[in-house]
Amino acid sequence: MKILVISDGKYGDRAAKTIRKKFPRTHFIVIRKRNPSLFIDEVNLSTELIEKISWAELIIVYVRHPDVVMRICEFKKPSIIAVDFGEGFLRQVESINPSIVMPKAMCNVHPNTGIPEVDTYFSNYGFPTYSIELEMSQGGTPIIKNVELLVESPCGASEEALDNLIGKKLIPETITAYGVNIRHECREPISVMLTHDDIADSSASLHVINLLEAIEMEIPEKFLPNTVLGKYAKKRRQEYKCLRQASELFKETS
């Protein structure tokens, strides 16, 4: 699939690099930064950008000015708007181009939008999904031998943090260290509703919960209610429901 990642310079570079691993025909282009608070009466796109939009089968837009994003959406290409401008803006662009999605977070999306190109993308990058290989020691603590990312975050945080897991003991401290690193590496663009810290906390918590679920599938007996991992997993799931609690967790351990 031919993917075009459009950035105004702050976000999207790491995403393009990550996406190329599974979609080699991914192009990355940086356009001029515009002040998001200033209205643009007429948005003029460069010839190069228009040609690349025409070439692409899927467009991922890491641009922070809504007028520029609106203009890009007018080309009616399947598109993912990576900056959350709010529901009102989404309704506007959907009236122009129904093949648009604007996730609250790029690493918390399932491939069920009904837009084939978008769903193909989110089958590979989005809601973090793991395959875990454990090494069991007789009477001892399991070792995380290998972790395969079936679906990863587009910013690369999922993969960057794997060194905190592979070869480590399966104990709560190991899982928390992974979450802390995810939070540090998070490159989720801004939202009109949430701060970057809120989004990073939510992303880290989601990765931790999904990782725990993958591990639990391998050794469910270690996650019984009265076990260390069982209690830990329950607490992490409760915290994910409240961004403030998650924030306190990662601040305490960072």
Keywords:
254 residues, alpha/beta, Rossmann fold, Enolase-like, domain 1, 2 domains, 5-stranded parallel β-sheet, two-stranded antiparallel sheet, 10 helices, elongated
Give the end-to-end Cα distance, rounded to a whole number of Å: 39 Å
How many separate structural domains? 2
Q: What pattern of helices and strands is seen along the backbone? A: EHEHEHEHEHEEHHHHH
CATH-derived architecture of the largest domain: 2-Layer Sandwich
Characterize the main sheet.
5 strands, parallel
Query: Can you count the beta strands?
Result: 7
Mean pLDDT over all positions: 89
Please bin the fraction of helical residues.
Answer: 40-55%
CATH class descriptor name of the largest domain: Alpha Beta
Question: Which percent range describes the beta-strand content?
Answer: 5-15%
User: In terms of quaternary structure, what is this?
Assistant: single chain
The CATH topology of the largest domain corresponds to Enolase-like, domain 1
- Please give the radius of gyration in angstroms: 20 Å
Figure out the total of helices: 10
The backbone outline, from C-alpha atoms, is elongated
Helix and strand composition category:
alpha/beta
Low-confidence stretches: 191-196
Name the strands of the widest sheet in spatial order.
2-1-3-4-5
